[in-house]
Amino acid sequence: NGEPVFQSYHSTYDSDHHNFFPSGTVGIPPVEAGYMALAYRYAREHGYEVPDAHFWAICGDSEFREGSMYEAVPDFAERELGSLTWIVDYNRQSLDGQRITNPEIVGGTDADRIERTMAANGWEVIQLRHGYKRQTLFKKAGGDAFQNFLEKELEDYELQALLLVQDMKALKKGIAKEHPNMKKFLESVSDQELFEAIRDFGGHDIIAMADAMEMSKKSTRRPTIIIAHTLKGWGLRCAAMPGNHSQLPTEDEVMELKSKQGINGTALFERFAAGSNEGKFLKDRGDRLLADIKAQSVLKEKNQNYFLKKLTEWGEIPESLDINTKMTSYPHTQWMLGQLTAKLTRISNTPLEENKLVEKQKPLTETEKPFKLPGELFISMAPDVGTSTNLNPAMDGKIFGAPVVTDLETELGVKDHKLPDMVPGEEVTDRFLRFEIAEGNVMSCVGAFGRMRDTVGIPIIPLMTVYDFFIKRALDQYFYNLYWKSSFICVGTPSGVTLSPEGAQHGWKSDIQIPNQITWEPLFCQELDWILCDTIKRHVMNNNAGRTGTLLRLVTRGAEQKDMLHYLKKQARFKSGLEGQLARAEFPVAAGVNEEEVSAVDESTILRQVREEVLQGAYYLIDYRGYAGYEPGDNVVNILSMGSPSTEAIKASETLLAHGVSNMAAGFFGGAGFI
């Protein structure tokens, strides 16, 4: 309801959501943090102003089994995201109880496995096992045995059991029996020291935690993971208890906690005294955080004003990119996507000043100049399907990524120049993100880049392509993007009947009904042109509230582009000076004028009207209202269709007319997009 709230799961719909990633135990927010770090670096390398930010994400040790996180782990390392730190709350418990792993098979505790896994994937790893009290005891006689006991001998499940024991004398006796090398140490510490030491995890030592976080920022090329060992329910009676996930403290325990904290009266919470060291520190820290938040708000507004002014410098963004389809035989919408993105790429890399043009570059036309900045803001990406979804021109020599290799193929004279140049770099003209077959990563990435507009005021326009069937491979991330109010374009192509011939898991198709999105499935290339240009304009002008996610479903099945105007010109509403009613030349009707003998209005007028209808969701391609013999309820059939099956819908309309079943009776919707 918009009121300030304090809750576990942050939401973009909360009024106090500043710079929080919407959270939940599905392993997606930490991934979004990584791709937001990439988006910041991308923006900075392309000359835009962003804060010098470090990105932090915390997750549970059980959540760290989520596949979404492991899918992203090698990608973040290979992209050298040193501004990313993940913190694993390693408390050895999950919602259902104590975690029981297999130390014999995996070679240690789960913390050991995580450390080896992350190190093998190029991450810096910080194990934060021990607090100050433990560190002190390690220096005593036999302390090394105690440290080895905690780090090498004690299994997680065994540790959790020891944490439940309150009788320290009995505990000492039991440990000494099972671990004779600990006897000397146990004799040198009091019961209270042992009780506190067993519970003194590094994740609860604020100094150790701060040191680890500072250390994580030192590596500028590698992401870092901090494995913070903690005790679930620390300081409470339910500490380490298997069912403590949903357990609440009793009233007398709350009173006991108040007493320990020196809180008097009826208040449950109380600030530190303003004059205390803690109070002074928190006041200073709070002031700095608020100043940083305000500074980012100022920067966001500055960026927004800059782009809004710059975007209108050459006039309004046109309604079309004017792609000529007349010389192409039966083009399809995926082909059109390639033409549109290729033109945006060309425009973005063409200087406005003619004296800066290089050989073979043509100056931008007046209708192309308004697309210059949107083209520069446009970035595309794909899960290893860029070439098969017609993004070749946007990829060729324009891969943005850590420059880790030289172009050895060119040096050796074996470069195939018919294929896109995939050598990565960080030039200002590099605007394609290459991925392995990892749909979840790409979906998270397109969502993070789509949040740059609302986070720092830079309206980067992210577009991803993916075979439509495999959108379901990233549905969690897709939902997250929409819930996060990210503004992005997802292109599912090929889709439906044009992908199914590949067999196996390529034939599924489903509509996706999630709030904050709009989906389109055009038939004609012109429809896609209008839709994409409108989507880009809405994005950069921040005019897409409630529909920030755009899903385009395209096909690789060609369509006769001439059919669009061919059928539109037959409609009575587009006839010039019409008197009376019309009839099709092939099916003459008494009192009906041959429609071919009545001229249509000019094509620009027709297309202008139809464009509005397309963007509203649907239009009549074939419409016999105004024709002689048109009798709704008697001989009128409405055929509704979207995308490629519309070819069959057109044939069905003609068949109905030929058989006189519904003479002059086909009402046809094409190019529909539904919110």
Give a description of the structure:
- It is built from 24 helices and 18 strands.
- The chain is an alpha/beta fold.
- The chain folds into three domains: 29-245, Rossmann fold, CATH 3.40.50.970; 342-553, Rossmann fold (3-Layer(aba) Sandwich); 562-674, no CATH class.
- A seven-stranded mixed β-sheet has the order 8-7-9-10-12-11-18, with helices on both faces. A four-stranded parallel β-sheet has the order 1-2-6-5, sandwiched between helices. A three-stranded mixed β-sheet has the order 15-17-16.
- Helix 21 (525-540) links the parallel strand 11 (517-520) and strand 12 (549-553).
- Helix 1 packs across helix 18 (439-450) and helix 18 runs parallel beside helix 20 (475-483).
- The chain starts with 28 loop residues before the first helix and ends with a strand.
- The model is unreliable at 662-675 (pLDDT under 50).
